[in-house]
Amino acid sequence: MTHTEIIKTPTPASIAGGSGNSASKTVAWVASRGIFIFTAVLLVFSAIFVNGFASSVNIIDVFHRASAIGIVAIGMTFVVISANYIDLSVVAQIATSGVILMALSPTYGVLGAMAIALFFALLYGLVNGISVGFLKANAVVVTLGTTGIGAGILSLVTGGTIYYGPTGGPIDAFGDARVGPFPLSAFVLIIVAIVASIVLSRTKFGFMIRSYGSNKQATRLAGVNSGGVVVGAFVLTALAAMIAGFVLAAYSNTAVSTMSEGYDFRALAAVIIGGNSLFGGRGSIFRTFIGVIFISVLSNILVLSGFSFAWQQLVTGAVIVFAVALDALARKAEKR
Amino acid sequence: MSTDPDAQTTRKIVIEAHDVVKRFGGAVAVDQVSIAVGAGEIHAVVGENGAGKSTLMRILAGILTPDSGGVSVNGKLLEPGAKASLEAGIALVHQELSLIPEMTVAENILLGVTPTKFGVIDSARQRKIAGDALDQIGVSVDLNERVSRLSMALRQFVEIARAVARNPRVLILDEPTATLTPAETDYLLSMLQRLAARGLAIIYISHRIPEVFRICERATILRDGQIVEVMTIAETTPNAVIDKMVGRELKLDLQTRRVADPGAVVLSARGIRAARVNGIDLDVRAGEIVGIGGLVGAGRSELVRAIIGVDPRTAGTATITVDGETKNINGYGNAVRSGIAFIPEERRTEGLALDMTVAENITLPNRAALSTGGFLQRGKIAEFATRLANTVGLRPPEVDRAAGEYSGGNQQKVVIAKWLGREPKLIVLDEPTRGVDVGAKSEIHRLLRELADQGTAVLVVSSDLPELLELSDVIHVVRDGRIMGTLSPDEANERSVMALAAGERVASSS
Amino acid sequence: MSTIKLQETQTGTWNRVKSTVARRTEGRAVVLLILVIVVIAMQQPIVFNAYGVSLARVALVGLVALGLTLVVLQGELDLSVGSTLALTGVVVATIPDLGLGIIVGLITGLVIGALNAFLIVIVGVNSFIATLGTLFALRGLAFVLSDGRPVRVTDIDSALTFGRELLGPLTPRVLIFILLFIALQFFTSRMRAGREFYAVGGNRQAAIDAGIPVKLRLFTAFMLCGFVAALAGVINTLELTAADPTAGSSVLLASFAAVIIGGNLLNGGRGSLVGTMIGAFALGLMQVGLTFAGTPREVQDVLIGIILLVAITTEPNNLRALSGRVQRLTRGKANASA
Predict the structure, then answer these.
(1) What is the C-alpha to C-alpha distance for residues B160 and B153, in angstroms, rounded to an integer?
(2) Exposed e or buried b per residue across A269-299, where buried means at least 16 C-beta atoms within 10 angstroms of its C-beta
(3) Contact in structure between B354 and A215 (CB atoms under 8 Å)
């Protein structure tokens, strides 16, 4: 059979009859592709109309702020794609790893502290993952609980102490390092994104996460250990949150138990705004990455325009509500 | 359509359907059906699986709106919608229980019509009405007990009390005895007779011919959505009813009949018990196609799912023997690793991830073979998936297309294709060609025969009698979670299978 | 007329007690409450004398949990209760006239409930996701209105009268809590609309078939939940004479813990306000006991988090499924070795 013949073959969809009217098609299109347009428009708009946006200092700052949030969001993408809604406990996880890095490096060395942080990250991932994957508990409630436990213990142990790294130490050096005009953290973000993207789209494990999120029962009936897949998704999220904690701590060369407030929210915002479906199955790291750029730029222009942090929260929250409503409407339109 | 003029009733007609037609997509589920039931009559509606009985009942109860034709009560045509039907006095006892587990018996009986004073539940009246309804059907149960704590049988009776509490003129029951013991069935049947004696028109849907002969006055026999005949029970025999249900002489394509040459036993199940499965022994040999027949709700799907560990079993063991090595089947993961493939009944929810591409669906059970060091081998996957898509005749064989874009028949081919990649020793198929077009159906049949010829053991559950008869080397007929009889190809025909399935033994006529 | 006995009925007082106990859903909450009371009686008996303090704490946890229970009974979830509480608090404090502020605050709660219900019932967003969105959006709004700082109530004198003891040792907050519990308990056990919440959560299709206005019931539950959360925000602000825009997060944790330990099934249809009440009592007393014992606040959060985690992972249905799996595994091993 030649290639042209394949193209001439009527598509199954066309055999089955038309699919939806033009309005529902538009909704579906905006839900899946709209973010790319929105991001592009936002970038162009900011460059033209927002004073100071296009300056190199500002661009670098955007990158800097985007890196920690982006790393968390990329990790969270695994939980979202596995159709488990969200890992709320990333807030506690980021702070835990940041504090461990700053507080324990003097005693155990940077690598020793990182190893200890890794242990706690794995603990978070396992407790969340086993509760959700094997004990079949609701992910939102479970991670609400582990947030309470983790944040409570951290706050108890540190007592609100702010840990400063020695000036000029390795952590400080990492935070200040630049490659060309870009901070090192931006490269960490890009490396995490590339690795995560490969894991999600190229590996057997990433494939099982996507498949599980798309149809749990069919995945189980294909002989997949579905509990193990869920544990894996939570562990990956925990590892990303740990790295974000390191980056965040290194950036300011300090760490405190409240350093990551609002990160659950902004990471989820990036995942959703990027167009990853909260019903699971659909999505990619690239989408999350675009989502991160979108909310980082949005926050940035709000700051440049003189709006407070509170306004950023409100606007981001409203965008989330809009995005989930769009996602649901697109699903509805598709079913018709 | 032929209607026996003798089967007209002399009773005063209460409910009547006129030339009702209902299509789902392209398929006609109910085709030009007219039915009239009189006061005090118990009228049976019988037919094979998929004959259109349940659809007809839902039209009568106003849950489905017919494409043409209508339903009238006491000569008045009803508005469409469940509400109008309820108000006209039509009460339906569902096949699936529709009780609220955590509410009390009294609350369930009056669900949706709870008597209130200023929004506050009038519990005295609630208990009175509910108690009266239970008295009418002669069942005693604590009105304050939560339904979740009742036996299945009691729930069924509460369901009937709920219909009776609405003072209906017409009572429709859809397979009410499916979960009952013989004694409970006996009680339910005499209860229906008492209700009919008080002037209620009762429409009784059942697969079970003996029950129909015990209580019904007339029977409307449906086949492929059309009325075959309306018979007066007193003037006919169970055999005649079964003949009418089955209808056609099956024209088996003899060229497709293969000569089975079964080898060693591959699957051996002993004493299997689970929900709806009451102790079943079963063997499947290499190169053999074993068919499981029976009516919907007989416990067939539950049986195969319990054997291979998809659903838990309460008792029994199952083993699989591959290359002389026998292993216990403990749990589903273990079954898959031992070389079992399972094609489930619900294609869209259990068989395929519709959002994902054909290639991805095919990769899922074959992920280990298609990856190296944890990385998927893209080139290998494309080639592997295309090869399997061609084997099963997927059209068009574009493996990068989402599975959900394909028609039902092509989707089913993908489900089969994904398992063929593992070269399974045993394939278990639950309703392999439901919702599949004729062309794809014969291709799937050909494929299964080829697999058996190559030595694969095949276990098929099917409601489609011709399919079962064409494919199977041996047919076990299941009723009430037990094997009621085993038929060889020579003994098996539509009548002999249906007779075992419906609970009426008939002498093999061939 | 003859009747048939289809199930053994329990006779004897002991059996009847047993079956009554078995049909309740509050078991785990009762166990926790007894445990807490025993420990407190041994370690900090003063908690029982300081019932003013204890009841106030129970009321704070309990109020939000009561509203949440209504939504959970229908098989839905409202994660935005904490933010609703914080936002209404800020609204009350921002408006100079206290009476007007309270009214606007309560209306805010109703509007939030309606917005959640709209997203869930009309647009078709899953309730976890929709309320997760409003959780963040409302928190943002609270920050905008307050500039991220605590806001002091202007009319402090009027607010202070609110904290005074009104009836014996009972402050208005405790009284409102008790009255609201009685009203909602009456609503869900004696009123038709409230009882039908169980039908909506227990078997939604059957509820629709029976002609129950399911969408209306969902709207009612979400709006009541929003209203109660707003009420909690108002009371909190009056007692503290200031509103904290960050107030929501620990309340969310504690109220969820009370609902789930109270035996309310997250899938809906099973549970009770009584269970939630007992859960709230156990958690509230525990918090007061720990405070009197001088342990830091964080210990309370940790303990409540542990209780929530244990409660959600030991939901009886999940446990049954798990024990089935373990049994099959062990049986499989036994067979293999035989």
Answers:
(1) 11
(2) bbbbbbbbbbbbbbbbbbbbbbbbbbbbbbb
(3) yes
pLDDT band for B62, please (50, 70, 90 cuts).
confident
Put simply, the answer to whether C198 touches B102 (Cβ < 8 Å) is: yes
- Helix or strand run (H / E) with residue B42: strand B42-47
CA distances from C223 to A296, B286, C188, C210, C216 (A): 34, 63, 15, 24, 10
The structure tokens listed for B244 are 């009418």
- Please tell me which of the candidates C4, C209, C328 has its beta carbon nearest to residue B187: C4
- A149 shares contact with chain C (CB less than 8 Å): yes
Indicate the SS3 state at residue B484: strand
The tens digit of pLDDT for each residue in C142-186 reads 988 988 788 888 877 777 777 677 767 677 888 889 999 999 999
User: Which regions of B26-150 does DSSP assign to beta strands (E)?
Assistant: 27-38, 42-47, 68-73, 76-77, 90-93, 116-117, 120-121
* A138 part of contact set with chain C, CB < 8 Å: yes
Residue A89 at interface with chain C, using a CB cutoff of 8 Å = no
Q: What are the backbone angles phi and psi of residue C186, rounded to the nearest 5°?
A: -60, -45
Token pair, residue B453, equals 């010829």
Distance from C-alpha of A158 to C-alpha of A256, rounded to nearest angstrom? 8
Strand (E) or helix (H) holding A295: helix A285-304
- Amino acid identity, residue A259? M
Q: What is the mean pLDDT of chain A?
A: 85
State the complex-level ipTM: 0.83
Instruction: Note the pLDDT of residue A262.
Output: 80
Q: Which two tokens stand for residue C62?
A: 């309990």
Q: Which chains touch C (3 or more CB pairs under 8 A)?
A: A, B
**Which chain C residues are Cβ-neighbours of B126 within 8 angstroms?**
none
The pLDDT tens digits of the residues spanning C266-311 come to 888 888 999 999 999 999 889 888 888 888 888 888 999 999 999 8
Q: Looking at chain A, which residue has its C-alpha nearest residue C250?
A: A148
Residues B249-267 pLDDT 10s: 555 554 556 667 788 999 9
Cα separation, B481 vs B485, whole angstroms: 12
Per-residue tokens: A310: 């509170």
Contact list in B for residue A211 (CB cut-off 8 A) is 353, 356, 360, 364
Please report the sign of the dihedral spanned by the C-alpha atoms of residue C161, residue C167, residue C170, residue C175. negative
